[in-house]
Design goal:
By secondary structure, the chain is mostly beta strands. Helices cover 14% and strands 52% of the residues.
């Protein structure tokens, strides 16, 4: 049995016209709402931003550090992953018994995760368990080698003297340290503490 008639002969052209119209509608939607794409520089785009942070950091199940900072940026996708603390950092370092070994204050800080290296910048103020104070403009803390060092001017206040110089090396606890180029040694009782380092 053969079915024929004028309605069936018009079906293919009508379907073609409808498909073309639908395609134009889809195309016009795409043109009206394009999807923007951009190249993102991972070294300048944080993967995380946290505000008003106070956190404890442990190593092998033992709390080692307490960090307080107004802003903490994490750049995990950068070639050399790092954390940035552009508005300042307060860090306390603890021993195995949760006793504070050192206090660190800086105007800004950067921590390079893979290298386990801190760079502290601005007014860097550190004190150790013996209440000795270390003031400088830039300090590096290499956690792998367990040492602190600086090429900047350093001002150290102990119980009986004040030491100043350029370049500094120390163990992590700031109990054994040396100044590379000593600029002055003064009795503590004749020295008035500076408010800022020049």
């Amino acid at each position: 049995m053969k079915i024929s008639g004028p309605g069936l002969r018009l079906l293919p052209p009508i379907a073609a016209v409808m498909l073309i119209a639908m395609g134009m509608t889809v195309a016009s939607c795409k043109e009206e709402n394009p999807i923007a794409t951009a190249d993102v520089d991972a070294s300048h785009t944080p993967t995380m931003l946290t505000r008003n942070v106070e956190t404890l950091i442990s190593d092998s199940g033992v709390v080692r550090y307490r960090i307080k900072t107004p802003v903490w940026y994490v750049y995990d996708e950068a070639k050399d992953p790092y954390w940035s603390f552009p508005e300042g950092l307060n860090l306390d370092k603890f021993d195995n018994f949760f006793r504070r070994e050192a206090e660190v204050r800086a105007d800004s800080a950067t921590y390079f995760k893979d290298r386990q290296l801190w760079r502290l910048d601005g007014n860097v103020d550190i004190s150790n368990v013996m209440n000795e104070k270390f003031l400088t403009q830039q300090l590096f803390w290499d956690q792998r080698q367990r040492k602190l060092y600086s090429d900047s001017f350093i001002h150290i206040e102990t119980t009986d003297k004040v030491l100043e110089g350029y370049g500094f090396d120390s163990n992590e606890q700031l109990t054994r340290y040396s100044i590379r180029r000593v600029a002055g040694i003064f009795p503590a009782n004749s020295f008035k503490r500076k408010d800022s380092i020049q």
